[in-house]
Every structure is written in C-alpha cells, then in structure tokens.
Batch of 4 targets.
Target 1
Amino acid sequence: MFKEYDVIVVGAGHAGCEAAAAAANMGSSVLLVTMNMETIAQMSCNPAMGGVAKGQIVREIDAMGGYSGIISDKTTLQFRMLNLSKGPAMWSPRAQIDRKRFAEEWRLALERTDNIDFWQDMVSSLIIEDNKAVGVRTSIGSEIRSKSVVLTNGTFLNGLLHIGEKTFGGGRSAEKAATGITEQLVQLGFESGRMKTGTPPRVDGRSLNYSLMEEQWGDENPGRFSYTDIDRPTDKRCCWITYTNSNVHETLKEGFDRSPMFTGRIKGLGPRYCPSIEDKINRFAERDRHQIFVEPEGFHTCEIYVNGFSTSLPEDVQYKALIQIPGFENAKMFRPGYAVEYDFFPPTQLGLTLETKLIDNLYFAGQINGTTGYEEAACQGFIAGINAHLKINQKAELIMKRSESYIGVLIDDLVTKGTEEPYRMFTSRAEHRLLLRQDNADIRLSPIGHALGLISDERLEKVNHKIANSDNIVAFTRKQGIDMTEANEMLENLNSSALTQNVKIFSVLSRPQVNIDDIRKVSVSFNEHLSKFDQDTIEQAEIKIKYESYFLKEQEIVNKMQKMEDKDINPDFDYSQLISLSKEAREKLLKIKPRTLGQASRISGVSPSDISVLMVHIGR
C-alpha cells in the first residue's frame, strides 16, 4: 500500500508543515503523518504570528522560501510593527490572525505542493535498523518505510491536560495524547524530560462590553511578513485592552489550593516569559493589576482569546474571576483555560542540523526540543526538512550561523546550551541583532534559499534590485548637497542644531531627529530621485545611512568571531585525553561534541582557558 518515502514527517503543527513543505519543494517524496487531518497547522494557543524577535524569524523563513509568512499575510486580521520608538534592530512585525483560515490556507498550500502525501494515524514507534531511522509504525499496525524521519510531536508525547483537580490524557483540548515514541527513544538511550504550557479560556465576544476597554487598532498602513506580493485581506479587526484588579486576584487565590501548579501535580516547568495568571499573582504580589489583551479569533467568529489570562485553575474559579474584569461582567465562557504537560528531549542530543546524535537520519523539531511558540517551531521544522533532504541526497548540510540569522541563534542556543524550561526567542539572545533586522532578512537569506532551490531566479533578482536601488539612494545623498537656509528652518522645527555651511544630504540625514521625509520636503531634487523607488527600498536606504558606523563596527566583531567559527573540530575528538582541560569542560565537550571552536566557547562550563588548550591541540 505504501511506497518508500524520502522523508516522513510526524506531526502537522507549525514545525511539521514547514518541514514537509521544505523537503518536498527541494524534490523529496514526503509523507506527512498527523493524528487528525482537520487540525493541520492548528493555532493551539494565541491567534497571532510574530512579535518581538518572533517576527524576525517569520521573515527569515519567508526569505528562504518557507510558507509561514505567506500564510500569515493571507489571513491577517490586523498588523502592527512593534517597538518603532526604538532602533530598527528592535522593530518586530506582529499580526493578529484568523485562526481557522490560517489552518485552512496551510492545508491548501500543502495539498498544492508536489511530492507531499498525507496519512491520518498516530505514530506509535520508529523503525530503526543499523542505528538509522528507516520508517515508522502506526497505531493501526501500518509500517511505512522511509530514508529519514522528522519528529515534530508538539505537546502530544504522553500529554496530560490539567484543569484544577481534573487531569485528562491529551496533547490539546479534545485531542488524545501520542504514546509509544518516548518509551522507545528512552530505551534507545535518549534522555527525556517534562515541560508544561497553558492557554486561557475562550469567551463569547457578543457577551463583552467593549466600551469599558481600550481600543487597539493595527497600523494605518500595515506592513507584511512575506517579501512576495500575495494579496492580503483589506478588512481589519480591532483588539482591546483591559486589566485585572484586586477583586480578580483575590478570587483566583481562592482556587490556589486546587491548582495543579501549586499542589505539585504538574512536574514540568512552564514558560518563564508567558506565565499563567495565577503564577503572575503569586510571583508579582506587589502588583494590583495585570494587562489583558482581548483578541478576536477570526473574521467570521465571535470567539475571543483572553490573552494574559492563561490558567489551569478549576473552571468555576476561572469564570468567577473572569466576570470581575472590566468589560467581562456578563461574559459567557466557551471553554476553560487549561495546562498541558508533555515530554520533550533536551536538545543537546542534537547536532546543528537538528539530526539526533544517537540515531542517523532522525531529526527533531519544535516543542519536542523544549521550545515554545509557533515561530520557533516553524523555523526548526524548516531547517530539519531541508537537512533531511540534503543528507539523503549526499549534499552538504545547512548550518545557520548566529551572525546571519535568528534561526541560527535559536538552533545554536538549543544544541549548545540546552534548555530546562520552554525556550522563547528574544532580540536580547542575538549578540549581532543590529545586523539581524526584520527589514533585511531577504538580503541576508534569499541567496541561501535560492541555492537550495526554494527561491526562484525572479525573486532573487528582486532582492538584488532592492540592494542596488538602496545603494543608489545612499550614493545620491553622499554627492547631493542641501541648501543651508531651507535646511535650517526644518532643523529648527525638529530641535536640531543649525548648519553653518552647506553640507551633503547624507550628513543631515545621519542626525537622529531627521528622517527621510523631512529632507524630501526641503529638497526638490531628492524628492524627485526617491519617486523612482518603492517604500521598502527607501526605508532600507535610510537605515543604512543612519546606522552606517554601527553596522561597520558590528561587522568587524563578526569577522573576528568568525575566525573561531571557522576552526573545525573533529566530531570524534577525544576530549578525555586532554588532562589540561577542567573535568567539567571534558564532560560537557564529550556530551555536546561541538562542531567548531566558536561553538565550544559557548558551552556552559567551558572556560576561556579551556578554549586556549583546545586551540593549541587543534593547531597541532
């Protein structure tokens, strides 16, 4: 019945969908196995994509030929560019999404992708031969052979749902858990652990009083995630903001003695940066209120996501507290919030390609690696799918560098440092974030996507035009002067010091108070020159001008660090023989088996003196 596939992807969440699409678009025959064909690309938690650092990841996936940015743009309710008051390294795109349409568009995109087949069943075990993954077995007894397997099981591995004192088996509300895989992998020598995440109650938007809340609209001129020109919805939806209060907090506290978090029934660690409402009240007792974001789940539904009210307290306590929030006095609950506890595998057991070290041709991606978030999962799936295809075709592997992408930062963090709590991406995790901006992801990564066959010639040519055109604008500002009299009137209005002589436009535009539109108003020649270019190109040029010296300094640091990244280490190097290394360093290096000296230097417990010892031996 089944042919032998090149790649089997287990799980059809965000990681699984990107893995399947990437491998198939590169030419592999792919089988996507999911327990429910109706929940492909389900947004299990918040109906949104992007955010701080996460938005950069979505743009990076898109720049290399992934689908997440395109699907998000097609299903956007509202779009906002966050952190515009800060420098461009912090700008982060975020979009509210129509949850149902998002899943539908993902399924349609996968069905339209050549080389992808689907199978609805639970994978209960892997077929391992000669220390290599060669297929899967399903719960109904099917054996399906393949050359590689990508596991993207999300929160389903031995998943447990918690609502107060009630516990149910499941990976998501009304969906059963996946069993068998963890037990097999542990028998094979893998280390596993437990993590937890949670979700808030959903309510009937018709029962809310929005007049007591603050409106939160998206950008007037919304941007997009994808660098393609796909059509987007013209309609927009509003979100709202309200707050908890002391009455809400006191009501919630009444249920703490029945909370699975505080009674010890939940063993797994939850996400530090997305705590439950009861955790917030407990940890931040000095605060008398917490912000609640009221988010619509789609264009054609009244269901509302209560962002900021994630909880696993008993449903009666949830409801009693909920109706004391301003605007929620008459709220009708559709379903209560809950926590889900699940198995994960510490990612130090992986290589930088996301292939496991113990079993060849077996890849892990997404929450199975201890991450949280759709975007973090999607980029791992994308890279795992690519590398699965490359390996079975005897092609060079793809390893993303920390200096070229947030994706590279995320994977290096996981593989090199590991994680004991759900890992979430932040701009602060990237030491070169000034170079890894959302506006230049296409410039940084499209050549890689093109080389892999995921980006067309036409799309790469468009990127090259953007580079050439932005350079053209910068060159124009270097040679074109600006009239001192007209400039000083503008500078005075902007509280910027006056000019004492005529200067080039580049000099004035370098000032933090002055933007490109200010110059256009006082320079006819500049305004005429810019009329030939689109807004993205103009924005790129302005960023180059304003931050040129910072970019040059950052690139110098990258170039210096690259010398260590280029020092390869033999994966079979026997660190136990280097008695000059500290005992901890020997243990950590033997476990992680770093690919380069740079990666070795980032391992917790490996000191600069240990690196010096390694440099001597590598030099020999």
Target 2
Amino acid sequence: MSTPPSGPGQRLLSLRGLAPFLRPHRRLLVGWLLALAVSSSAALFFPWAFRQVIDSFKHPSEVDYWFGLMFTVALVMALATAARFYCVSLLGERVIADLRRSLYSHLLSLDQRFFERTRSGELISRLSADAELLRSVVGSSMSIALRSGITVVGSAVMLAITSPHLAGLTLIGIPLIVLPIALSGRRVRGAARASQDRVADANARAGETFNAIHTVQSYAREGFERERFGDAVLRSLGAARKRIRMQSLLTASVIVLVFGAITAVLWIGAHQVISGSMTGGTLAQFVLYAMFGAGSVSALTEVWSEVQRASGGMGRINELFAEDSHLAVPSPPVALPSPLHGELALEQVTFHYPTRQDAAALVDFSLRVAPGETVALVGPSGAGKSTVFQLLLRFHDPEVGRVLLDGVDIRDVDPVGLREHIALVPQDPVIFGTTARENIRYGKLDATPEQIEAAARSAEAHEFLVALPQGYDSELGEHGARLSGGQQQRLAIARALLKNAPILLLDEATSALDAHSERAVQQALERLMQGRTTLVIAHRLATVLKADRIVVMDHGRIVAHGTHAELLAQNGLYAELARLQFDH
C-alpha cells in the first residue's frame, strides 16, 4: 500500500475523499445547512432575549412579551435542531453506505497479487471499523463542528457588540486555548492511527483463526489462539489507552483555560455592574454568549479528536482506493470469437509469482490444447500445474510469452468476459454460507429450479441434498460446515456443470469422493467433457486414463507428454509417479 500522509494538513485533506459520496445527496446537505443556520441563529438570539427579560423587570408590563418571545425562540430552535439531526444523520448513513459499496466493488476488481499480500481481516476492518468512524464524523461530528464554529464566531461578534471592553479582555485568552490544540494535534493523530491499526491486527487474527477453526481444534490449540488474540487485544487496548490519555489531557487543559478566562472576565464585569457602568441584563447577556462560545470551543476540541481519528481511517480507505489492478484491461477489449471453439495455447511462457520472485513457477512453457481435447497435467507438487490454471483464468499475466484463447491473446480480453467461458472445480471447493440451491445457482445466476436439480443429479448430489432438513433450501453453514468433504466437492461439481462453459478446468475434481461417488461423477464429467476443452490436474488413475493426452511437468517445464502407455514405456518421471501415487 502507499505511504499514508503524515502532515496535519495532508491528513485532514484525506477527508476530501468523502466529497464524491456527498454530491449525490445534495438535498439532504442543503436541508442540513438550512436547519443548521436557523438553529444557530435562534441559539445566538436567545441571550439577547434573556437580557431583555432581566432588564424588563423594571417595566412589569413587558415581562410577558419577552418571556413569550423566549419561548418562541426555544420552539424554533427545537424544530430546527430536530430537522438538522434528521438530515445530517440520514446523510451520514447514506454516504457511508455508498462508500462501503464503492470500496467493496473496488476491492473485488483488484487482482490476486493484492490479495496475496493483504490480510482479509484488515480489509474487513477497513469496511467496518474505519467506515464506522467516518459515519460518526459525517452524521454527527461534522454537524457539531460547523455548529460550534458558527456559534464561536457569532458569540465573538455579539460579545464585542455587548461589551467591547470585556470582549477585548476575552480575546487575550484565545491564544492560550488554541496553542495546546495545535501542539497536541499531531500526537493525537498518530495515536489514533496506531489504535486503529492495532484493532485491524486483532480483527485479522480472529478472522484467520475462525477460517482455520478445524485445524485449530484438531491440534487442540484453542489455548494458544486465545493467548495470541488476547495479546493482540492488549496491544490494541494499549494504543487506545495512549490515545484516550492524550485526548483527556487536551480536553482538561482547554476547559481549565476557557473557564479560567471566563471567570476572570466576569469578575471584572461584576465590578462594572456594581459601579453602575453596566446593567445586570447586559452582564447576563455577556455571560451567556461567553458560555455559548466556551462550550462551543470545548466541543470543537472533542470533535477535533474525532476528526483526527476519522481522517486516519479515511486515509487508510484512500490507500485501498488508490490500489490498482496490475492486470491491464484494454479499452476497448477485444471480443472473443462467437461461438467459442476453445483452443488454448501457452507460448514460451515464463512466470514468477509476485511473492516468490526467487523461483520461477513456469519456465519457457509451451502447450497447445485443441478444441474438445482433454489434457491431464501431472507432476510432483510445485511443478507448476496450478499455475497453468492461474494464467488461463488471467489471475496473473506471464512476464514472457503469451496465453491465447482461439488465437486471441487473453491480455486483450476483458477478464470478466474471459472467465465467463471457463468453469473451474478447485481442489478445495468453496461453499458459501447460504442454501444449497444458491450455492449451485452461483454457476448460472438465472438458472431455473429444474436446471439446478439436473446439475445436482449429474453430480450425484441430489440424493444427499433432498435428505437435508429443508432439501435444496437448507442452509449449509459457513464454508459448508454441514456437509462432508465429498458432499462439498459434488456441490462444486454441480455448480460447474450448471455453468456449462466451453472450457473446463478440473483441479483434483474427484479427490474427495469415495469409490462409488467417484465412478458416478466421472461418468457425469465424461458427458460434460464431450465437445469441450478440458484441462485436468489429477493424481487419480481413472482421470488420467480417460485423458486424450498426458503432460508431465516438473519445475515449471514439460518433461514428457503422451498417452498413459507411452509414458509408462519411457520409464521416466511419469512411471515413477504412477508407481508411487497411482498404485500401478
């Protein structure tokens, strides 16, 4: 990620990233500003009306009028404040909802390189904790800051009108109030960012543990994980304690300075009333304006801390928005032939994973797969078999060489359009925390119930699905926790069958099935492979024997290819793998 802005002004400028999300809600913004203007004006009018009430004691006939006016002002202020709260609160909710949707959409568009170096828990924290800070700023702190700013300026003007002499004395204390805010602002910002980073660390730790809960419990490491999470929480708490301590000291200092200055000024004013140079109502008006101004300054110091935290959060979100996919999407993209024949070709491809630059995953790798051909990729772990799939799906681009589909370089094709023509069954099936029906429908979002059931039957999944409490509409739990490994695999196969794409990528597609289910699924896959280009990564003998061609890989290179019998006769790496893994 990019380096976060460090200067005070730069950090606050990060909040400018909210501007595009504010523009669509101009009506709420205008409504909030109008209500704010009315409520602030009514609040500033109140001390003047209070002065008239006190001074009217000398004229009893005017008392009722001035009390009636005070109540009217209070009523206007109440209605305007309610309207202000409604507009700004709804504005905050809508802006942050738009921000979250936009950030989520942007993250989905990033390439695998980004997700390989970024923890999912950190991204969740940005979408939740940081966005919540911004919601608080837009829906509350922003309104308080502007209202307080108006009140401070308005109170200062009215103080000068009420008593220029006392107002002049009040101005002397302003530098004493502003100075600690300016000096401590940078430290508070740093502490706020550190606190949010530690929260993200704790969230990432928890997310990682929950995703691996089966391994955690099977190794009986619950105590170890509790201790690790506890340490992360303690670090988060320590950072928060530092931030809170700074904010508390800042608030206390400002309050002492503000009210100390007010007390000194009032002491002078009291002597003026005693001497007869000022009326009691004028002093009361001055006191109220001073209290309003002091209270607003105090509110600004608290809001300032919130704004600092939110600017840090917005800075982190801006960093995510600044991330770009390294997979360039041409404009306009080249259209794939229609209908697609499914001819695949990798020409002299060399590729290193971004996180493993020291070892090449593929070296001068060339492979051509004819339309409708089934090719099995075999080889030891780390040979580069899965990397071939990664490049075909364009999760990465090769550094050297080309990947072609029907003669078109896939770098010239929209990645989304490319992947629409490919069905993948991974070694570790991904089951979403929803119903079985919706998991299968993921292969074709507009599929009918009949098509979903047909795909499940072909994948030998229908029988166990109808046996679930709510059948196809049964919730499967997070990561398909309510299904066995073989059942999860068959559900993933049903999803790929439903997609009905011209190209199939099968990565150990039958590895989790028992012998009976494997035979049935193999028959379904064979029917599906007819007329479709299929690449299979497999260690199971049945899958390899059905392939038109077997490609043997080692250290990112093709070391042999041919039929099962031809490769056995060569007595090379394939023969060794067959003896060790195929039990031949």
Target 3
Amino acid sequence: MHAYRSHNCVELSEANVGEKVRLSGWINRKRDHGQLVFVDLRDHYGLTQCVIDSSDACFEMVEATRLESVVTVTGEVLKRSDETINTGLPTGHIEVRIEAFSVQSAADTLPLQVNSDEDSGEETRLRYRYLDLRRTRPHGNIMLRAQIIQSIRARMVALGFTEFQTPILTASSPEGARDFLVPARLHPGKFYALPQAPQQFKQLIMVSGFDRYFQIAPCFRDEDSRADRSPGEFYQLDLEMSFVEQQDVFDAVEPVIRGVFEEFSDKAIDSEFVHIPYAESMLKYGNDKPDLRVPFEITDVTEIFRDSGFSIFAKNVEKGAVVRAVPGPKCGSRAIADRMNSWAQSEGAPGMGYIIYGDGEARGPVAKALGAEKAEEIRIEAGVGDGDAVFFACAAANEAASLAGRARVKIGEDQGLIDQNSFKFAWIVDFPMFELDEATGRIDFSHNPFSMPQGGMDALENMDPLEIKAWQYDLVCNGVELSSGAIRNHLPEVMYKAFEIAGYDNSVVNEKFPAMINAFRFGAPPHGGIAPGIDRIVMLIADEPNIREVILFPMNGKAEDLMMAAPSDVDDSALAELHIRRAPVIKPKGD
C-alpha cells in the first residue's frame, strides 16, 4: 500500500466496504463522544469520516491531535448505519475505522477557524492566506478560476487563436495608469516597466504576420484598490485579430464569454449582447457600464424645467445645467423620498428633488412649483404611475449623469427590482475619440490613443475633435466593465494626426512608441482586439462582491502582501548595485 494514501477523501463508497484503505489529509473536525472519537479528514477533494474507539492503541494520539494537523489514517471501510448516513457528503454512506494513525505535521493553535464560513477579518485572512484557502468557499473559488481559465483557453484554440507570451520587462509608456518600474542594473539610471497590458506587443504580433493571437496575460498597474479592481496586478484574456472590423471582434468574443458563463453558472443569460452608443448609455443609465437588470431608465427633462416655476432648477438650466429624471417604482411615499434626499447628500450632492404620484395627482414641492401640466409631462416621460415617484438630479451634464446613475441602481436595489439570477451583457460603442480636460482646457484622448477614429484621416482633418467618434468598445455585464477594446489605428499618418490633435508632436510619438510607429511603416494589416478581465469574470460567476475573493494570493487595499510582508525594505548594498540612492520621504502637508 502507498505510504500516504490508497484513495483520496472523496473516492470511497459502499463499493469499498470491507477494504483496508489509507487516507491522508487535514483534521477538519473532531467529535469526542467519550468512548468514540469521530474525525472528519479533509483533503483537496473532499471529506471522509473516520472513527476510533477507546480500546484502540492509538486512541489517545487521535484524541490529542489538534485540528488542521496533517495525518495519515489506515483502516477498514465500514458501512454507516441508516440513521447516521450523511446524504450531504459524497462519502456519507461509509466511514473508516482507524487502525493505524500517524501525524505527518502537527498544527499549532489556529489564528482563524478553517472549518467554518465565519469571516475572521481581512487582515487575518490575508496574513494567513494559506489557511484561509483551506476553507470551502475560498478553495472552491480558486478551483473555479482555474477551470474557467482552462475553458477559455480551449474555446480560444477552437476558434483558431494561437497563444503567445509577450515580455514582462518592457519600456514605460503613457497608457493611463502609473507604471511599476524595475531598475536596470546593467544600464545605470534606466528602468524597465512592467506592462500595464500587452497592448503594443499584441499589435506588433499582427504586424509580424500572425493572424489570431491570445494570451492569459498578467498586467501591472500602480492603481488604488476597489471592490472590482485588485491593486498592482491582474489577469486578462488578451486577444488581437487581423483583417477585422468591429463586428468581427464581437462575433469572436461573444461565444467565448457566453459559453463560459453558461458552463459555470446556473443564472439566466440573455441571448443578445445589446449594442448601446456611449452617449445613449450616459443619458439613459448615467454611466458607460450600465446594469441592465434595473428595469427602468433615466430621462432628460431639462426642457420641462426651463423657464418653469421651480426657480432653483430653472436658474441652473439657464446657466447650462441639465435635469435628469430617475423613475422610482414603488417609491411613492414621503419617507422614501426623504431617504433618497439624505442619500444624495451623503454622496456629495445638495440633494434630490422629487415628485410623488398617487390618487391621480402629483405631490411635493417640485410638483407644486411646476404645476399639474408639467408634472404630468414628467410622469409620462418617466413612465411611472400611482404609487411611484420621480427623483431629479440637476447639475452639469457629467455630474447629473453620475448622480442619476447611482440613484437608479440604489432604487433598483432598495426596491428589490434587480433580477439577481441573470447576467445581462452589453457592448458600449461609439466612444468619443477625444475629450476636453476642463481643468486645463486642452483636448486629450478619451479612451485608447491607439484606436482608429471613425472616418479616418478625413474626420481628423475636417471635424470638430470633440465630435469625432472612435472604433472603441467596452463589454459590460451587470454594471461591471469586463473589458475594453478597439479597432486599431494602423496608419502612421493617421496616428501622427490623432496625437497632434491631443497636443503631441511627431517627436513625442517617435520617442514614446518607436517600435509601433516604425513597424507601421512596413505594412500593417487592419487589426483590432479586446481584453476581458479574468478576475472580474470569475468574480461575477462566483457571485463574490470583492475581487480579492477570487485571487489566489491577493494584496490588501493598501497594496500590501501581508503574508509575504511586501513591499519590503532592501539593503543599501542592493540599491548601490542598482545605482539607486534613497531619498527622504516627503510627507504631504497636513500629516
């Protein structure tokens, strides 16, 4: 018999009754019944109940061994009596009578409870992540992640994509976030950068004559943590295709994403990935990552308030503000309206005006000031009826959209209107190529600087830059942005012109993107791609509210690895070898 096991802890069944077996694993639970001790033995695969009575030679050893100690058990498989069968376990019809017992590794007193779903707090869980991962849900999440990645790989290969690996040490480039820099020992004073994404490399793969590339790519960005964003590093399904238009990318990606969600989730999935222009998304949903499970939309009621009797909004509209109306199904009470107003104030807004509809009339200060006719116009525009309300956000367009979008989701959640058992996907398309930086007054790229403008060079030369749209798109699911992508700008003259509009002359393009701009001079195919985030896909399928729950060894919100004590100090001698001198830490004013 093998030194450690003849079977794993989920394999034994009634067919094995009478056999002598050997199992190894962790002691998950012990139940001491005086003359009998029951041990739930756990390994990667599952649980098997083992039992020993006080007459056995190793009884005291079993009784004294702590939870989470690694042990080996040898004994006979017994059939459980009918009243002790556990139908919740695959091995619930049998147990193993312990005849020999050895401790492979004794456990100290545990800093967290492994055999429970009780949350021990983020700091403890991350510091002892190797213990936390023994727990059923975290262990299952990581296995789910591995299975999803395997499925994605198989689906991509079946679609004719080839997996390539791109460099990790590369050049710094301005792609929207801070780089992680690595000092180059052999080149004093110079640095590599960890890639924010394989963006330039995957485009160069297309220029190199390959046709369909993909990679489960590690990406590194020095960004702050959020519930749906891990600080430091993340993984994405990076892909690029030659000789494609926007719809070709959609047609390649949709079956992969839909197939993975269907394979690993029991939730309903809309058959259609709807297309929503960026401007429409901002108006109807208040953001560019709409949660389509919320069954109502925002409407623009600016003109109804223009020159109206509600002077606060009317005056703001004259100054350029807009008014967005958010339907409030089942919100037709003063108590709910007051709660929404207080919520808006907690979000940094002055508040939210409202109209309550009931018994065929409109009530509240806004309705009184507007008059019955305009209040009825709003009711029709918002699509509400008796027992409902409408809430208003009045501010500059971006601020009003943001508040209205958050209010829409809050109302949906508070009123139980969001279908928690469905996934709804959308492509957000027609992003603006450029945007105005209100602080500096200059025009800059709004999305990805490597995107092809709709209309090409003609649009860049003859249109108002703020009116130009790009062949850019985002894939969104249930209010979470899964990925961004674009049809790429593959023409040097178009790239130079796009950067010129954003305030960068040709020398900047040549300096910052030398490989790509030079490669485009030697024949580049039209190409495009996208990069769905692996972590976010798994988070949605696992129904976890925080992305750290689906990452093997995550950092905390301060970008610290508590388990490995990173980041850490290094010796002066190591810095000297890298030609780096410590600078004094300058604390922000007020600290």
Target 4
Amino acid sequence: MHRYRSHTCGALRDANIDQTVRLSGWCHRIRDHGGLLFIDLRDHYGLTQCVADPDSPAFKDAERLRAEWVVRIDGRVRRRPEGTDNPDLPTGAVEVFINEIEVLGEAAELPLPVFGELEYPEDTRLKYRFLDLRREKLHQNIMTRGAIVDSMRRRMKDQGFFEFQTPILTASSPEGARDFLVPSRIHPGKFYALPQAPQQYKQLLMMSGFDRYFQIAPCFRDEDPRADRLPGEFYQLDVEMSFVTQDDVFAAMEPVITGVFEDFANGKKVTQKWPRIPFAESIRKYGTDKPDLRNPLEMQDVSEHFRGSGFKVFARMLEDTKNQVWAIPGPGGGSRAFCDRMNSWAQGEGQPGLGYIMWREGEGDQKISGAGPLANNIGAERTEAVRAQLGLKAGDAAFFVAGDPAKFWKFAGLARTKVGEELNLIDKDQYALAWIVDFPMYEYNEEDKKVDFSHNPFSMPQGGLEALNTQDPLTIKAFQYDIACNGYEIASGGIRNHKPEAMVKAFEIAGYGEETVIERFGGMYRAFQYGAPPHGGMAAGVDRIVMLLCGTTNLREISLFPMNQRAEDLLMGAPSDVTPKQLRELHIRLNLPEK
C-alpha cells in the first residue's frame, strides 16, 4: 500500500465497502458522541467520516487529535448506520472504521477556524492565508478561478488565437496609473518598470506579422486601493488581432466571453445577443458607462415639462441652455415613506435632496393624480405629461435630478441603482452583457485647463487624421469599447491608431510634442514606419469575471495571496526593508519622509 494513501478523502463509495484503505488529510471536525469518536478527514478532493470506538486499537490515538492536525488513517470501509447517511456529501453513504492512526503534522492553536464560514477580520485572514485557503468556500473559489482561466484559454485557441508571453521587465510608461519601478544594478540610476499592461508589446507583435495574440497577462499598477481592483497586481485576458474592424473584434470575443459565463452561470441567464450602447446614450439612460442592465429603469430628459413652470428652482435652471432635468422612474415606489427615504439618501450623498412626484388613483374625470410638492407647483397638466412620458401608473413615483448633466450624471446613476435595489427591480438570476461603444477621444481637464485623452491614447479616432485636423477635439469619438456586466466594466479595448502622422497629431492635441512621442513610445513609433497593419484588440479583467461568477463582490475572495487595502502582503511581510549592502549595489540612497 502507498505510504500515505490508497484513496483520496473524496473517493470512497458503496463499491469500496469492506475494503481496507489508507487516507491522509486534515482533521476537519472531531465529534465525541458518548464514547464514539467521529473524525471528518479532509483533503483537497473531499471529506470522509472516520470512526473509532473504545474497542478500536486506535482509540487512544484518536483522543489526542485536534482540529487541523494532519494524520494518516488506516481502516475498513463500512456502510453508515441507517438514517445517518449524508446525501450532501459524495462519500456520505460510507465511513471508515479506524484501525491505525499516524500523526503526520500537529497544528498549534488556530488563529481562525477552518470549519464553518464565520466572518473573521481581514488582516487575520490575510496573515494566515494558508489557513484561510483551507476553508471550503474560498478553496472552491480558487478552483473555480482555475477552471474559468482554462475555459478562456480553450475558447481563445478554438477561435484561432495563439498564446504569447510578453516581458515583465519593461520601460516606464507616462500614461495611465503609476508604475512599479525596479532599479537596475547594471545600469546605475536607471529603472525598469513592471508592465501596467502588455499594450505596446501586443501591438508590436502585430507589427511583427503575428495575427491573433492572447495572453493571461499579469499587470502591475501602483494605485491607491480601489474597491474593484486589487492593489499591486491583477490579471487580464489580453487580446490583439490584425486586419480587423471593430465588428471583427466583437465577433471574435462575444462567443468567448458568453461561453465562459455560460460554463459557470449555474443556471443563471446569460445575454446571447449583446446590445451595443453608445457612451453618450449609456450616460443619459443609466448615469454610468458600465450599466447594470438587470435593472430595467431608464432615465429620461423631462426638461420641457418644467421649463417655465411654477417650480421656480427647475424653471430658473432651465434658462441656461446647457441645463436639463432628468427623471428616474420608480414603479411601485409611490409611497410617502419611500420617497422620503430616497430624499434622505440623496442628502447623505451630499445633495440638497431629491425631488419627486407620486401618482395615486384620482377622483372623477381625473383617473390618476400626482402628489407631492413638485406636482403641486407644476400643476395637474404638466404632472400628467411627465407620467405619460415615463409610462407610469397609480402607485408609482418619479425622482428628478436637475442642473448641468456633465456634473450630475454620476449621482443620477447612483439614484437609479438605489431605486432599482430598494424596489427589488433587479433580476439577480442573470448576467447582462453589453458593449459600450463610441467613447469620446478626448475630455477637458478642468484642473489643468487642457484637453486630455479620455480613455486609451493609442486608439484610432473615428474619422482618422482628417477628424484630428478639422474637428473640435471634444466632439471626436474613438474606436474604443468596453464590455459591461451587471454594473462592472469587465473589459476594455479599441482599434489602434497605426498611422505615425495620426499618432503624432493625436498626442499633440493632448499636449505632447512629436519628440515626446518618440522618447516615450519610441519602439512602437519606429515600428509604425515600417508597414503597420490595421489592428485592434481588448483586455478583459480575469479577476472581475471570476468575482462575478463566484457570486462575491470582494476580489480577495477569488485571489490566492492578495494584499490588504494598504497594499501590504501580511503573510510574506512585503513591502520590507532591504539591507544597506543591497542599496549600495543598486546605487540607491533612501530619502525617507520625517515621521
């Protein structure tokens, strides 16, 4: 028999009854039932119930065992007594009567339990991550993550993509987030950077004549903590294709992402025909560029019903042509208590409040009448016009946001989400996927009083060089696109600007001269001079996709060894001090801030 096991802890079935077996694993749970000792033995593959009674030669050894001790158990497989089967366990029809126990590794007192799914402080969980990873739900999430990556890889290869590995040590990039820098010992005073993304390398692969690239790529960004991104590093499904239009990228990637979601949806619906929503429409209808389409609410511009009305606050605002009034429908929300609750929520978000109208069954000729301060101020006719436009009925409400949409759209989007959640309108049993398209190429930076790239500086403007030369930059749209799912951006991409003169012009508009382009993107700029194919691609966030499919909202629940919110690895003790000798070898002297 093998030194440690003849079977795993998930393998035994009825067919093994009366066999002598050897199992090794962790003592998951130990139960004393009046002289009978039950040990639930766990390994990666499952759990088997093992039993010792006072007549067993191993009983005294069994009495010594504690949670998470690692043991080898020899014994005979038998059917569980009638009425004690566990149908939720694959091994639940059988148990092992113990003949011999060998302790392979004792465990100290546990800083957090492995049995059960109790909430524990995050710093404790991360410091003892090797224990945390033994817990059933987290262990399963990590295995699901591996299976999702396998599904991505298989589907990409089925679509004719080839997997490449691009460098980890590269040059610092001026765009995007802050780089992690790596000092060079051989070149004193110079630094490598860890890649924020393989963006330039994957484009250079297209310059090199490769046609369909993909990579499950590690990316590194020295960013302040964000709820939807792990500090330090994350992984993305990175993709690039030659001789393609935007439609070709969509046709290649839609079945891959749809298929991955279908593989792990556990019965939830997955969008089959993805809508394509222009950026401006997404902002206007949903108040976000990553809409949760499980929420059926769509905001509408109702400015005309308030222009010149008796509600002077909105009427005066609308005298400025850039201002608008948007309505958020609230079907089923027509109670004073709910409307007051929404108003209080808005004040908690730093707003003066949230105007509303409630509709109720009317009297006489008026079948439905509006109620509330706004309805009283604008009158029955305008109130009815608002209701008709929004398609609402008695028992419903609408909430109103007014001013410059450029300044209020994010709050309006939050309000739409809040109404949908509070009224239970969100269909939790689906993954709602969509393309967001036609992003603006540029935006105005109020702080620096200049035009900036709004998304990806390497994207092709719609209209090409002519648009760059003749259009107001703030009106130029780009061949840029995102994938939104359930309120998260899970992918982003674009058709690339592959013509040198167009690339230089695009950067000039954002305040970078040709010499800056050559200095910072020299390799790619040089490659464009020697026959650059039209190309485009995207990158999908592996961590966010896994998070959605595992049904969690915390990225630490789907990552092996994540950092905490202060970008510290509590398990390994990183970042850590280095020795004076190491600093001398790198020609670095520390200039630390005063405490």
